[in-house]
Amino acid sequence: MENRAIPVVQTAGLCKNFKDFWRRPRVQAVKDLNIEIEPGAIFGLLGPNGSGKTTTIKMLLGLLYPTKGRISIFGKAPSDVAVKARIGFLPEESYLYRFLVAHETLDYYGRLFRLPKRVRRERSDRLLDMVGLTHEAKRPIGEYSKGMARRIGLAQALINDPEFLILDEPTAGLDPIGSRQIKDVIRDLGRKGKTILLSSHVLSDVEDVCDRVTILYGGQQRAMGEVNELLRERDVTQITTPPLSDDTIAKIRDMVNRLEKKEILSISNPRVKLEEFFLKIVEEAQAANVHTHGAGKAGAIPEFLQKATEATAQGAFVESLIEASTRRPTESIAPVEIPVGEAPAEPTRDVVDALLGKTEAEQAEPPAPAAPEPTAMQPPEPRETPAADRSIIEGLLGQSNDEASSDADSTNEK
Amino acid sequence: MSKTWAVARQMIAEGIRMKIALVFLVLLGTVVLGLPFAITGDSSLTGAVQSFMSFAFTATAVLLSILTIFLSRSFSDELVNRQIFLVMTKPVARWQYVVGKWLGITTINFIFLASSGLIIYGMVFYIKATHPPIDTRFDLAELNNEVLVARHAAKYQLPNFRTGAEAEFDRNLEEGMYDDREELNKEEEIGRLSRKNEARWRIVPPGNMRTFKFSNLLVDRTEGHFVQLRYRATVSRYPPDEIFRAHWRFGDPYRGATVRDIPVRHRADRWHTIRVPSDVVAPDNTLTVEFFNQNPYEGEPQFGNIFEFRKSEDVSVLFIVGSFEWNMVRLLVLMFCKLTFLSAVAILMTSVFSFPVACLGSFTVYVLAAGLSFVMEGLDQLSDDYAGMFSSPGEFLAQSTVYLLTLARFILPDFARFDAVESFVNGHNVGLVWVLQAVGDMAMMKTGIVLGLAVLLFHRREVAEISV
């Protein structure tokens, strides 16, 4: 089982200098980059424009050669043709042939993977359905809007059912529906055990889908770690419930003050995200069969996009993926050291437990997993805490279980 | 191969949808379909067909050469528009991509060339059917026997002038004719005497005759088969008479051949073809032909011409060895070989340079390949044989260019050497050996070298490279 230890991507001391016409080094786009992506991870490459994200991706794909350092993809050089057969790539812009129609485009890329004709046709149909372009499949891509071209770009990236998917700014140019669909696709693929490298400067995209991120600035790695760990705000506790009466709120405020000797900082009605609201309107329009020349309603993820374990059933790679899906990624590369302040004091646990009505047995939590120490500065925005056991709160506040369960569906959605 | 062919198919799909390809297709169609209505040649049926074929094939070759260079734009466009990012991230080796592109352009050339050949073939028969004949029987016979055929042209054997020159040298030496010379180079003198004797042999004064001997004429000697004598007599008289009288005698009775006499009244400095039954060829496949200068001719006192057959090609015996159709196929193969090489050059250029630079480079190679011999000959004329390379800047330029072009010859084919349009139009056989040479030299070896170079350069290239 030698393959178990092989990460999908591993770079060591990766550097890239761009040169001028006279071959003199002018810009150091990437400096000493060390990343390691384990099988099954959704890894985010974050950074502002010009931070070296795309350059890194191009080096991983063999489109650029490193000035210094080492890259291995599935344990091999990026230029290895066999490695490329396991990769899907969506570039930052849809570099597609304008004169080909969608079907021809997918058929062409399918041919490059030597897929049989029947498989190519089947996959093309399913992918076009997935990206909602079935009814526009016979139009030349040159006539597509940017968002539609991005969708075809995603479809071509999945034509080979890749084990490793590289997405460079996947939601750029997409409307909120497309953006949401792509994020859903990424999440679904992640659940199927695919390894995904997502490069973006849209922070919400990365936050929504990635397990781990690294942040680049000026070509250098500034932080790396698990998203939840990096973003956890440790000095605030948030409880979300269905609408409460003023009386109940007053009781809670009093209880917190009495038991914790603390004031509740804010109590308000949370707003639904604009994305959610927008999608609801569009779904209603789609349900009413309103005609559009743009992308239509997207279909389900095609079943040919197998679970990574199925896709590689014959190889030793299977074991490494199984193992990857059951273990936490390890912090193997230490980026720039940023001192982490002392973790803020957790709220007194017995107060919370009393609030939630937990028994002693329930209070005995399993040992915390060996999460890597976050190495990044704390982000300014608070992150949602996991939803509490709502029925206990309802019971505590005297609400009926029926009400609680019906509301939970709407409020638990992210 | 399937990946290479996938790239090629994509190139074909792109090529046939490119506007520039459409423009060239329209131009080609206009030339091929319109020429029969515009060209009359020398007003004879044969002249019309020959002129049409000559212009149509030349236009096809030129237009497809230019189109080939423009089609290669697809390669540089994919680099500029970054479509190559997606292709190179698929499991396609770089050599497969380069060869696929070349294969795509070559296939487009094949389709266009074959289509053009078919249309030309059809138009030839259209002209044959619709051209107003002067003498139907004669015109059609001339066309069928001299143009719409594949004839092998046999050259006559030149007498051994050196033997005579050596004997003359010895005689001159004995008679003391070289006594006043300070230096005498025997070889040079024998060469001079040989050339003098040959020049003397090539002229036929009034009342004289000349014998031409041909061998290895593998013809069917049975009744109904013919051989043709094609000749052109240059008249050495000032002012030259346009018309001359002569007498051709075919066959050597001592070798068992039938003797046939053909008196002619022809125009000077023009090509003429005399058709005689093939029984004039002896059973040992030799043919003796005698030419009598009958000038001044009785009753036509103005004829006092001295004839000269300056080149060996001026007199040849032709006999049919194949059909017009297969001859055309072989001609098209020769043309295709050139396009194959040119495609490789265009791919090499676009894999390294941006399209404008690559386009200029490809055209330069095309022009050099088409006129390499001519350019080298011209430069050689400019250069002083006895001057040193560094004697003057001009000499340095001329000589260094000659050296460079001599080196280029290893990669550049000589297009002129494989130009068969004139032979084909004259009904000459485009020999299989000739075609095989073109395939081996141009389509395989030199195309392979250029394509290998393109693969090598592209393999080392960073496709996403940017200069800052």
Summed up, what is this model?
The complex is a heterodimer of chains A (414) and B (468). In chain A, 37% of the residues lie in helices and 15% in strands.
Give a structural overview.
- The complex is a heterodimer of chains A (about 425) and B (about 475).
- Chain A is of the alpha/beta class and about 425 residues long.
- Chain A has two domains: about 280 residues, P-loop containing nucleotide triphosphate hydrolases (Rossmann fold, 3-Layer(aba) Sandwich), CATH 3.40.50; about 90 residues, no CATH class.
- In chain A, helix 6 links the parallel strand 7 and strand 8.
- The C terminus of chain A is likely disordered.
- In chain B, the strands form three sheets. A four-stranded antiparallel sheet of chain B has the order 1-11-4-8. Chain B has a four-stranded antiparallel sheet with strand order 3-9-6-7, with no helix packed on it.
- Chain B has about 475 residues and is α+β, with helices and mostly antiparallel strands.
- Chain B starts with a helix and ends in a 9-residue tail after the last helix.
- Chain B contains 14 helices and eleven strands.
- The chains are: A alpha/beta (about 425), B alpha+beta (about 475).
- Chains A and B meet through helix 2 and helix 3 of A and helix 1 and helix 5 of B.
Write the layout of secondary structure elements.
The complex is a heterodimer of chains A (414) and B (468).
Chain A: E1 9-19, E2 25-33, E3 36-37, E4 42-46, H1 53-60, E5 68-73, H2 81-84, E6 87-90, H3 102-112, H4 117-130, H5 146-158, E7 164-168, H6 176-191, E8 195-200, H7 203-209, E9 212-217, E10 220-226, H8 227-231, H9 246-260, H10 274-287, H11 308-311, H12 317-326, H13 349-356, H14 360-363, H15 390-397, H16 401-411
Parallel strand pairs in A: 4-8, 4-9, 6-7, 7-8
Antiparallel strand pairs in A: 1-2, 1-3, 1-5, 9-10
Helix pairs in contact in A: 3-4, 4-5, 15-16
Chain B: H1 2-17, H2 19-38, H3 45-71, H4 73-80, H5 83-88, H6 94-130, H7 136-146, E1 149-155, H8 161-174, H9 186-202, E2 203-204, E3 209-214, E4 226-231, E5 234-235, E6 243-250, E7 260-267, E8 272-277, E9 287-293, E10 307-308, E11 315-323, H10 324-352, H11 355-382, H12 393-408, H13 421-425, H14 432-459
Antiparallel strand pairs in B: 1-11, 2-10, 3-9, 4-8, 4-11, 5-10, 6-7, 6-9
Helix pairs in contact in B: 1-6, 2-3, 2-6, 3-6, 3-10, 3-11, 6-10, 6-14, 8-9, 10-11, 10-14, 11-12
